[in-house]
Write a structure and sequence with these properties.
The protein is mainly α. The protein contains 20 helices and no strands. The structure holds beta-D-glucopyranose. The site of beta-D-glucopyranose has 14 residues, from helix 6, helix 13, helix 17 and helix 18.
Length: 459
């Protein structure tokens, strides 16, 4: 695939920025293993466990809402430096916390950094990348998230038998945080941000560095012209012609979470224990299988997303997720529990595989594609907020739901969400492969139905 022909400078820049994605994955995923040990040390009820898991998400909600404004005033590079500092601070506080409340404060700080990073890293990569590679490079950020989650699962397994297991688990996150900070010191500011600041000479120098070429005048002019359009105000995202795509972005954020992914990513070891894998290490080991499939399926998505297209992948993924949840629901309702651990593994593996090549990759890609340039920042920030908000709702209610209705009915509920999501997605999600962002924008201006905004013929 053409991705391998990318120039090394822009690959390195994207890889360093994607460390923010890795930290997103690590610091959200690590709670699944740490939870078993913290809830043992502090005798947590289901409600308290949910608070612990959700504290990161509260921070992420605040971070994602403020990220647009912060990235526009400080610049992308400084924001990335600041979040690396926040990642280090949050990690140290959570790892050395003398009480539950301090762990929660550390996790809120980590969440704040994750929320800002989940917006700024793809934006920084997209602004540094040549347009032909933008889709693949943005999806590389999602790959970094899944690698971070897998790393968290492996670290949890490794430290499961140590004293202070959960402290070590949190502390490992300091390594990518330091690497992000060190890496960003050497990276340039985004050329688009520099043009916006009126620093034209610096912008051209940066473009020459990123493209490994002296011939950057055409790209520079294009950036300058696109920015000379009027600046958007917050209320512009509610203009009648923009409202439908805003709805689509917010809906995709909702669907990615309401179909239940983080009941698995954050609670997999807990679910495996409920299925009969009573030993914490075995439960975490089975969770590593979940993490490996998550990474492999994301790599699969990177290779096929521009060929097969977004819609078929989305439908196949939602179908697979729904079926595996139905299967899990049935398995947990059976009286005979001999095969339950295997059924739970099979069901969760298929579910995560189906998620990663569809909603996992597609949400982050589509929110960077569907919005007209003048409102892209604000609209993207609101869609990312929707994702964190619904993540919070699901993660802070899952254990209570299981206590009240049982595992079987809870999975049945999420299976129903996948079914309903599939129908709505069929009706409104456009195909955006092989179409320029300008064509999408023109179709939106022409008030085309949402499902057709990716069509490339003239209207
Ligand atoms: C989602 C996360 C999820 C992860 C799993 C991301 O796209 O936003 O909530 O934990 O995928 O790989």
């Amino acid at each position: 695939m053409g991705l391998f022909r990318l120039n090394p400078t822009v690959s390195l820049v994207s890889a360093i920025a994607a460390l923010a994605g890795l930290l997103f994955g690590f610091d959200t995923g690590i709670i699944s293993g740490a939870l078993l040990f913290i809830s043992h040390d502090y005798q947590l009820s289901s409600g308290m466990s949910e608070w612990l898991v959700s504290s990161v998400l509260i921070g992420a909600m605040i971070g994602s809402l403020s990220s647009g404004a912060i990235a526009d005033s400080l610049g992308r590079r400084k924001v990335m430096l600041v979040i690396s500092g926040l990642f280090m601070t949050g990690t140290l506080i959570a790892s050395y916390a003398p009480s539950l409340i301090i762990i929660i404060i550390g996790r809120i700080i980590l969440g704040f950094a994750i929320g800002i990073g989940s917006y700024t890293a793809p934006l920084y990569i997209a602004e540094a990348a040549p347009f032909q590679w933008r889709g693949a490079l943005v999806t590389l950020n999602q790959l970094a998230i899944t690698v971070g989650i897998l790393a968290a699962f492996i670290v949890s397994y490794y430290f499961a038998d140590s004293i202070h297991a959960w402290r070590w688990m949190f502390l490992v996150g300091i390594v990518p945080a330091i690497l992000l900070g060190l890496g960003m010191i050497f990276l340039p500011e985004s050329p688009r941000f520099l043009v916006r600041q009126g620093k034209h000479d610096q912008a051209k120098t940066t473009l020459r560095y990123l493209r490994n070429s002296q011939d950057v005048d055409a790209e520079f002019d294009e950036i300058k012209n696109s920015l000379s359009q009027k600046e958007a105000r917050i209320r512009d995202v509610f203009l009648p012609w923009i409202r439908p795509v805003l709805f689509l972005g917010v809906f995709l954020g909702f669907l990615q979470q309401a179909s239940g992914i983080n009941t698995v990513i954050y609670y997999a070891p807990t679910i495996f224990q409920k299925a009969g894998l009573s030993n914490a290490s075995t439960a975490i080991l089975a969770t590593i299988g979940v993490g490996v499939l998550n990474v492999l399926s994301t790599i699969f998505a990177i290779f096929v997303i521009d060929k097969i297209g977004r819609r078929p992948l989305l439908f196949a993924g939602l179908f697979g997720m729904g079926i595996s949840l139905l299967f899990l629901s049935m398995a947990f309702s059976m009286a005979d529990s001999t095969y339950l651990p295997y059924a739970a593994m099979g069901g969760l593996f298929l579910y995560v595989f189906s998620f990663a090549f569809s909603l996992g990759a597609i949400l982050w890609l589509m929110v960077s594609e569907i919005f007209p340039l003048e409102v892209r920042g604000i609209a993207m920030s609101l869609s990312v907020f929707s994702c964190w908000f619904w993540n919070f709702v699901v993660s802070s209610s899952f254990l209570t739901m299981v206590d009240m209705f049982g595992v079987s009915l809870s999975f049945l509920f999420y299976a129903a969400m996948c079914g309903a999501g599939l129908v709505i997605a069929y009706l409104i999600v456009p195909e955006t492969k092989n179409v320029s962002l300008e064509t999408i924008e023109n179709n939106i201006r022409a008030r085309m139905p949402l499902r057709h905004i990716g069509l490339s013929q003239r209207w």
